[in-house]
Amino acid sequence: MEKQPNQVLWNLVFGVLLLLMGVGIYKSSQSIDYIWRWERIPQYVFYKAENPLRAEYDGTVSANDSGQLVLVNDFDDSEQTVIEGFTDVQVYENDLVFEGDLLAVSYEWKAGPIANGLVMTIKLSLVSIVFAILLGVISGLARISPNPALRNLSILYIELIRGTPLLVQIFIVYFFIGTVFHLDRFTAGVAALSIFTGAYIAEIIRAGIESVNKGQMEAGRSLGMSRGATMRYIILPQAFKQVLPPLAGQFINLIKDSSLVSVISLTDLTKAGRETVSSTFSPFEVWFTVALLYLVLTGILSFVVRRMEVKYAARS
What we know:
The protein is of the alpha+beta class. Helix content is 63%, strand content 12%. Strands 4-3-2-6 form a four-stranded antiparallel β-sheet, with no helix packed on it. A three-stranded antiparallel β-sheet has the order 1-7-5. Residues 118-305 form the ABC transmembrane type-1 domain.
C-alpha cells in the first residue's frame, strides 16, 4: 500500500510558502517607494449619494397637524412642500426660507464605476457564453458531419477564428460588420466574444464526441434510433461529462478576454478600472481591486463546474 504524505506537514509548508509570498509582495512595494491609498477605492465601488431637497419658492417652515415640517409659500398658502423621508433636515419650524435654500438631504447607496463595470462584465460574459455554446455545439457537430459542405464550412470557421487575434476580430465585428448591420457596442462585443469562443468550444465538443466509443452509435442505430436521436440521447450526454473541465477553462478565458471589449468604448470592468485610475492616481490599488474581482468571477465559475463534475460522476 502506497504511503500517504503527512497532511499536517505539507499544509504547514503551504502556509509558509504563502507567508513568504506575502512578505515578498510587501518588500517589493516598499522598494518602489509607493504610497498606498486604499481609502480612495471603496467610493468607486459603492458610495453614498446625496439627494438634496431645495426650496422652489420663498416661504416659511411650519408644522402641520401630523407634526411634519411643511414649507408654505409666502405668496400662495395653497402651495406647500412637505419635508419628509429625509435623513438630515436642515430647517426648523418658523424658519424663513428663500428659493434655492437647502431644506433636507437623504442618502442612498449607489454603485460606483467599478461596480457598474463589474455588472457589465458579468452581463457580457453570460450572454456571450450562451451564444458561444450554441455556436460551438452546432460547429462541433458539423465538424464531424458526413456532409462535406457542413464539415468544410465548420473547418473554415474554426481555423479562421483560431488563427486570428481576438482584438482584431473585435475591431472587424464592430467597425465593419457593426456598421453594416447597425450593431451597438454591447451587441458587437457579444458577437465577437461568442464567435471567438465558439470556435474553441467546437473543437472541445468534437474531441468529446470522438472520445465516446464508436460502438455507442452503432448500438443506438441497431435499436432503431436515427443518427440524430442517437447523438442527442446517447453520445452527447457521455461526451458532456468528458468536456466539462476544458469547457470550464474556455469559459474562464472568455471572462478574462471580455476585458478587450474596452477598445470599443464598452465600459466593462477593465475600462472602469482605467477611468478610476485617471481619477484617483492610484494605479496599483485599482488594478489589484480589478484583478480580485476577475478572480472572484472565475472562482465562482470554477466552483460551479466542479459541483457539476461531482454531480455527473455520482450518476455514472
